[in-house]
Write a sequence for this structure.
């Protein structure tokens, strides 16, 4: 019988999650979810795999976890329950195809935890009015919303009007889900609408540029979980590849695809 070690959330080490090993039934339970909606499958799986009896009957809803917590938790369950943790990966260097096996277990060497509360205060202006907010990591709600927009965008040709509009929507979702403004409505959807309305009212070359720079700087302070690079709605995992003897190492980035970490029969 496989036992998974308790998993402290990288964003808040005081929250410790107890997982049980996936069964055939668990695999079949997520099989009905649209394969393009990996974030929805992730939420369902991470909630389902919690051993609530070891958590005092409590469920820690993974929709509220950060995206980094969610990805690291999937990895944690995967490497704890699989004998073979190698993943083949192909990429191109100087026009030549390179095939390597990445040991996903070694990604643990890149993991980090937050030593501060998962929020960074910033100040910004809208129409000359100063406002205070806290920049926060994107959580499960954000990841599912961004994924829906990304899936819709994939139905359109790059650089087409619908594609560009959905790209703008993804960028807006990243910003509106990535902050909390003092005095905003208490419920999620009205709060998202409120944040978006304020962003739309900003002067581009002054207020918006300063706001975006402040958000970007704040996000750097919130790094945690497996090392990743976020680009256009997709997270890229980072690992190192050894080059020829004496030539050191080369960083490799490859897409984090939840389906690679979810159980399948």
């Amino acid at each position: 019988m496989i036992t998974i070690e308790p998993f402290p959330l990288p964003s808040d080490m005081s929250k410790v999650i107890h997982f049980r090993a996936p069964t055939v039934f668990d695999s079949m339970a997520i099989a009905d979810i649209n394969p393009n909606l990996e974030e929805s499958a992730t939420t369902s799986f991470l909630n389902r795999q919690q051993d609530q009896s070891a958590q005092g009957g409590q469920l820690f809803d993974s929709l509220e976890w950060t995206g980094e917590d969610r990805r690291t938790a999937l990895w944690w369950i995967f490497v704890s329950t699989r004998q073979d943790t190698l993943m083949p990966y192909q990429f191109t260097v100087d026009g030549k195809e390179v095939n390597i096996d990445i040991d996903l277990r070694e990604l643990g060497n890149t993991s980090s935890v937050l030593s501060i509360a998962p929020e960074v205060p910033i100040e910004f202006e809208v129409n000359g009015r100063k406002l205070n907010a806290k920049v926060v990591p994107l959580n499960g709600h954000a990841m599912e919303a961004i994924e829906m927009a990304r899936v819709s965008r994939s139905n359109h040709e790059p650089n087409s009007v619908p594609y560009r509009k959905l790209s703008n929507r993804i960028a807006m979702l990243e910003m509106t889900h990535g902050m909390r403004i003092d005095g905003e409505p208490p419920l999620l959807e009205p709060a998202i609408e409120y944040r978006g309305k304020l962003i739309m009212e900003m002067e581009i070359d002054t207020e918006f540029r300063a706001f975006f720079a402040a958000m970007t700087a704040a996000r750097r302070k919130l790094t945690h979980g497996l090392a990743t690079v976020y680009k256009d709605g997709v997270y890229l995992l980072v690992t190192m590849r050894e080059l020829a003897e004496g030539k050191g190492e080369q960083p490799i980035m490859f897409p984090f695809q939840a389906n690679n970490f979810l159980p399948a029969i």
The longest strand covers residues 234-242. The radius of gyration is 20 Å. The mean pLDDT is 92. DSSP finds seven helices and ten strands in the chain.
